[in-house]
């Protein structure tokens, strides 16, 4: 086996996360509260909206390629591509899989509302009673997010690593700390993949099996001096299927502090009981009455991330559910958390 690790591409690509220039200026004129020509649809509790209608309402031109089965959204300086074949999204060089999927109904493509927030920079609000979709701009933190990409194929290991690097913080020491954290976990994923590749080379080369490492990220919240990022580390070692470990990091961009779940609540907030009750309720709503391992309560330092809706609690594969359920996530809405948080996560409304 070739012991050297051949890096075929290491590039820095500027990712225009949710239109930072427009957001910093309070959004595009005429967009705030704009009515969209299209209906919202609910699937498994998630709001989906018509992609073309929303994109064109926010100034994008939309192109459809039947040959490639791809939708392209274009604006000066920005290109967003959604492949309907493999659910891959490409935003100015950063590629990721749309795990929530999309819906094709009567020839129209519907995407989850977080696709609009993450890539177009607008919150989606749905007036269910009148079946009207409205858009409002997101005020992003004044930072630029770039994507660092490392790819290689050594024969025994196929590797693709993408992780963020932020620029623009006034305090360079905080910026360096955050970027160092992201680089460290990416390096750990790469080291894990190299180790798996060495094992595969020795045991499974005759079966034409190779290890795979796919490490990627999503910016889940980038407002109000808070940055919350989710990482997924997929490793395949030649078995029936690979395994994905999800991790998340929520930072205060002013102080550099990394938050654990218990850091967000007061000492007597009773957040463990509240969140645990809400998760049990959501399990029942989803028709999941039995779990792989009986769920009683979250841990005080349970894995989480922040988004526009609230705090999202998640569990690893096999932690409470069978493999087919992936990584179960439960959103605890902002209204449920009112009065309990000791940190100002969301803008004052």
What does this structure look like?
The protein has 349 residues and is α+β, with helices and mostly antiparallel strands. Residues 1-30 have low confidence and may be disordered. It is built from 6 helices and 21 strands. The chain has a 6-stranded mixed sheet with strand order 1-14-15-16-17-18, covered by helices on one side. Strands 5-6-7-8-9 form a 5-stranded antiparallel sheet, with helices on one face.
- Return residue spans where pLDDT drops below 50 for at least 5 consecutive residues: 1-30
CATH domain fold name of the largest domain: Heat Shock Protein 90
What is the overall silhouette? Answer: globular
Evaluate the radius of gyration: 21 Å
* Fraction in beta strands: 35-45%
Strand segment tally:
21
CATH class of the largest domain: Alpha Beta
In order across it, which strands form the biggest sheet?
1-14-15-16-17-18
Give the class from helix and strand content and strand pairing.
Answer: alpha+beta
Profile the largest sheet.
6 strands, mixed
Number of helices: 6
**Considering the protein shown, what is the CATH homologous superfamily of the largest domain?**
Fervidobacterium nodosum Rt17-B1 like
| Average pLDDT reading | 86
Fraction of helical residues: 10-25%
Distance between the termini: 59 Å
